Here is the input.
Amino acid sequence: MIDIDLHQRLTIRVDEMDGAADAGIETVDRPQGFQRSLDIDQSLADQGTLVGAGDILAVASSIKFAVFGQADEEGMEVLFPRYRGHFSGLGVRPRLLIKDGAGSTLTDEAPAAESAEAGLFGHAAAVQRLLAWLDGQPDVQQILAIGHRVVHGGREHREPVVLDAPTLARLAALPPLAPLHQPQSLAPVQLFHALCPGVPQVACFDTGLHTSQSRVAQAYALPRRLSEAGIIRYGFHGLSYEYVSRRLAQHLGGPRTGRVVMAHLGNGASLCAVHDGVSVASSMGFTTLDGLPMGSRCGYLDPGVVLHLLQHEGLTPEQVGKLLYQESGLLGVSGISADMGVLLASGEPGAREAIELFVHRIVREVGALTAVLGGLDHLVFTAGIGEHAVPVREAICAGSGWLGLALDPAANAAGADRISSVDSRVGAWIIPTDEEWMIADHTRRLCAGRPG
Here is the structure.
């Protein structure tokens, strides 16, 4: 049950919602200027995309958001960004940064709780501050819909879905599959539901794209009862791969992209084999811990290592989880940082070893995914490292030269769209990802024609 008091304070109490877990919502003051213009029809949410009278706001992870306008265009030009921004340091040193669609800074502030009783400036206060800011923008007349990036959809959710109480309850049961991300994805649902009553909200799943994979590609060699209970390879970063696949099709001038390996290389990293936009295989599996070494996550690991840590090193399951999720990857190997930029600038041997391991594992996985595809037509780099780390792209392309990939060093250094040479048998590309756009587009399509 959700109790709402819209006098001087907004109080949200979540006792139960058809089995949904307590979302840990804060009590916060209602902002000045929170007007009825934000009250529309239809309901419910998670953590991700809002729209105003022709505007869709997409909130991807923690509190990162984008507001999109709808244009009288076709294809990928139907949506254009009005605003992008994020809150950082919530609960500690909160910061709000908002830019317009062209990248010019509009707001850069350190918001604070309005009173000592209100406590720290956390997620609830951030959502309120965002809505109050939007309410003051003349070109955002009305919020039409809210879309959210939800990391895990389980086996049941392949396509984006309008969030209702039963759906939220099912999604709330999935956090063990994505412990770092799922709770954060779902926490703001009740906040948006209370602050924007009647606004339809949509969940877009990072696992959805990969449900096209064959049963063999998803299976582990475990007893059948475990597979039937849902212990399979799910794959992640699906929204990013879906967006990049559409952009690649644009570059190529048609819907057929052929055999593509996409490299989403950021603090979280994975590779995906895609054939004409359809996911065939992914380096990530049951959780976001699998596959490539990442910023602080270990990536693929012999399960025997986990048994050894538990049985012979005396670590508890919680300690093992912290080790694998927060103390490994680039951070653990280098002993310096999880930030690739820091490692590339460092002369320390540990930094060099971490980069070499990262590249080695990617090159090996590119080969494996190429085998699954039966050949390779394009290799695409995206996300923070993929889009900006020139030496990392160069090393990966050099290691993939046996596939017929030849790099154009000048294009790579300049960050051009296509970075392969004219005589390369395999195209190499840099395509910046935009998960917020993908969320907004799914939300727009799903809510089109809904009453209100």
Observations:
- Residues 2-205 form a domain with the Nucleotidyltransferase; domain 5 fold (CATH 3.30.420).
- The chain has two domains: 2-205, 238-434.
- The chain has a mean pLDDT of 81.
- The CA atoms of residues 188 and 237 lie 21 Å apart.
